[in-house]
Design a protein that fits this description.
With about 280 residues, the protein is α/β, with parallel strands linked by helices. It has a single domain, classed as Dihydropteroate synthase-like (TIM Barrel), CATH 3.20.20.20. Helix content is about 40%, strand content about 15%. The chain is built from 10 helices and 10 strands. The chain has an 8-stranded parallel β-sheet. Helix 2 links the parallel strand 4 and strand 5. The longest helix is centred in the middle third of the chain and has 19 residues. The structure holds 9-methylguanine.
Length: about 280
């Protein structure tokens, strides 16, 4: 399946790794490491050399408990990095944002994918993404990052999230975003308990019934800490296990911090899956 990302087409016949490039002082496992544009660009180039097909640049932390940053600050963080990577890497550049003004500026600076944890629900976001012509990632989140992990509740977690994503696909279609520009994401860890996350991972195949590629982000997440008793810096092996299981269960894009290890794991999982 080809994903239309503005000027690029991304082939998802084999799973693709989306490398995480947080340009933030406070992201939960790599906050502050790539605040300077030169270091961030070098890390983006290194991740493409390790096999990332997408580089996801974020200037506002989305970890549980994160507080908002001003849009001007978000733009100040991400634009030099996108400009520094555009034309220098083959990977599709992604902007991790919910704000329409950031979507517009990031796409003008070379982004071909909008990764939105709010699934384009902020006023003006659908229109900004539609006009940009780029691909969009629609993620489910219950609540907001500041409070989402306090007491997540669902009547039926898989069905509720599937229905939410079906509604957002419909909203995209109505806004003029063609289906071949859209991927969906159940949003592991965004307003979900460990049991919710495990259930979603087991039943990931349900989301493929919506007819769009499935993106997952499991890398270094707190469920690994809860299951294994590991701090954020000790979650590589748990992350790799989850990435492989997600691909076996149908994931097309895996968002990851540790690109080289994840690329190997998803290649093996894809061979076993038979894609
Ligand atoms: C920005 N971000 C953090 N975790 C994520 C996840 O699981 N999916 C997507 N699409 N984005 C994420």
């Amino acid at each position: 399946m080809l994903l239309r990302c503005g000027g690029h087409s991304l082939d998802l016949a084999r799973p693709v790794v989306m490398g995480v490039l947080n340009v933030t002082p406070d992201s939960f496992s790599d906050g502050g490491r790539f605040l300077r544009p030169r270091e961030a660009v070098a890390h983006g180039i290194a991740m493409t050399e390790e096999g990332a097909g997408i580089i996801d640049v974020g200037g506002a932390s989305t970890r549980p408990g994160a507080v908002d940053v001003a849009p001007e600050e978000e733009l100040r963080r991400v634009l030099p990095v996108l400009e520094g990577l555009a034309g220098r890497v083959d990977a599709v550049l992604s902007i991790d944002t919910s704000r329409p003004e950031v979507i517009r500026a990031a796409c003008a600076a070379g982004a071909g994918f909008v990764n939105d944890i709010r699934a384009l629900r902020l006023p003006g976001a659908l229109e900004a993404a539609a006009e940009s012509g780029v691909a969009v990632g629609l993620m489910h989140m219950q609540g907001e990052p500041r409070t989402m992990q306090l007491e997540p509740r669902y009547r039926e977690v898989v069905t509720e999230i599937r229905d939410f994503l079906a509604g957002r696909l419909q909203a995209c279609a109505s806004a003029g975003i063609a289906a071949d520009r859209v991927v969906i994401d159940p949003g592991f860890g965004f307003g979900k308990s460990v049991e919710h996350n495990l259930r979603l991972l087991r039943e990931l195949g349900v989301f493929r019934e919506l007819g769009r590629p499935v993106l997952v982000g499991l890398s270094r997440k707190s469920m690994i800490g809860r299951l294994l008793g590991r701090e954020a810096g000790e979650r590589l092996y748990g992350s790799i296990a989850l990435a492989a299981i997600a691909v076996l269960n149908g994931a097309a894009i895996v968002r990851a911090h540790d690109v080289a290890a994840t690329v190997d794991a998803v290649r093996i999982a894809a061979e076993v899956r038979g894609s």
